[in-house]
Amino acid sequence: MKRASIRSITNLLAIASVALVVFAVPPRASRAATEEAPLALGGNDPVRLAGGQTIVGSEELELTHAGLRYRFTTAATRDQFAADPARYAIQNESCPVVPGAPADPSIFAVHEGRIYTFATDECRQNFVAEPARYVGAKESPNPESAATRRTVAILVYDGVELLDFAGPGEVFAAAGRFDVFTVAPTMAPVTSQGFVEVQPRYSVASAPRPDILIVPGGAAGNVISNAAVMSWIKSTAGRAEQVLSVCNGAMVLAHAGLLDGLEATTHHGSIAALRQHAPRTTVHDDRRFVDNGKVVTAAGVSAGIDMSLHVVSKLLGADAASTTARYMEYAWAE
């Protein structure tokens, strides 16, 4: 019995040693992962490309960086890339013309010795026509032509209308030059439409001061009855560049005293109520949105998209708004 036991133990140790050898050799798996990585720049040598030459590299001279395969014309250019990948690798993961859209590593353009990739050929053409608009002041030879980056705070709360906040959020996030975040009464998740749970980025107590404040509609009474939130809206609106409302979010602005002496609109089902609660406001029932300069109000639900595209056009230009609308497949006309 002892011999059998010893022999069994010996066999188990042998099996274990083989298993250890198998699990200790990952290079084959890593090579397979490398082979599956997308080929960047159509196989063009990135070092030569950054220098203004479009030359296809060799399959034998290949290097993987940040999940992309790069090919080189010589070992020297491969070594040059390896020594400074931040200089020669693609500069962006998402399309700089339409932020949030994944860039195709085969659609590229070179600007000031840096390589940028794009979601579509049309995006590439827009970039080539006006690169300083998309790469920012640091890389632009003319910083004054680069658009200023702004922050956008979207208020969310229990019962907030889904498209009221998601529509404007999509517009500003896709337009670029905007950092978009959500703010709620507390850091607890809020529920929209009874089935979508939203985890806010900030509470009203911790939110940074935004350049643009958006107050969507929905169960607006939950906001109006919350003194802390109303106080935050008033103080934030006083320092913001733009204050926007969607649907009966206009009712919140009215209760905050932000529509006095102005023109406004809201969801068609809330027109009468807004007129009653905002007697010093001219309320329109036939407009998608009303722009007073700083304060802009939109009618119901999808009208928030039109309003947001209008504000993008106002701040970044009509081309930026049109490009954003096209990316969203949204039929928009100012």
Description:
By secondary structure, the chain is an alpha/beta fold. Helices cover 40% and strands 21% of the residues. It has helices at residues 2-23, 27-36, 46-50, 75-83, 85-88, 121-129, 132-135, 162-175, 221-224, 227-239, 249-255, 271-277, 303-316, 318-327, and strands at residues 58-65, 68-72, 104-111, 114-118, 150-155, 178-184, 190-192, 196-198, 202-203, 212-215, 242-246, 263-265, 282-284, 289-291, 295-298. A seven-stranded mixed β-sheet has the order 9-6-5-10-11-15-14, with helices on both faces. It has a two-stranded antiparallel ribbon with strand order 1-2. The protein has a two-stranded antiparallel ribbon with strand order 3-4. Strand 12, helix 12 and strand 13 form a beta-alpha-beta unit. The N and C termini lie far apart (90 Å). Residues 1-35 and 137-147 have low confidence and may be disordered.
Please specify the SSE layout and strand pairing.
Layout: H1 2-23, H2 27-36, H3 46-50, E1 58-65, E2 68-72, H4 75-83, H5 85-88, E3 104-111, E4 114-118, H6 121-129, H7 132-135, E5 150-155, H8 162-175, E6 178-184, E7 190-192, E8 196-198, E9 202-203, E10 212-215, H9 221-224, H10 227-239, E11 242-246, H11 249-255, E12 263-265, H12 271-277, E13 282-284, E14 289-291, E15 295-298, H13 303-316, H14 318-327
Parallel strand pairs: 5-6, 5-10, 6-9, 10-11, 11-15, 12-13
Antiparallel strand pairs: 1-2, 3-4, 7-8, 14-15
Helix pairs in contact: 8-13, 13-14
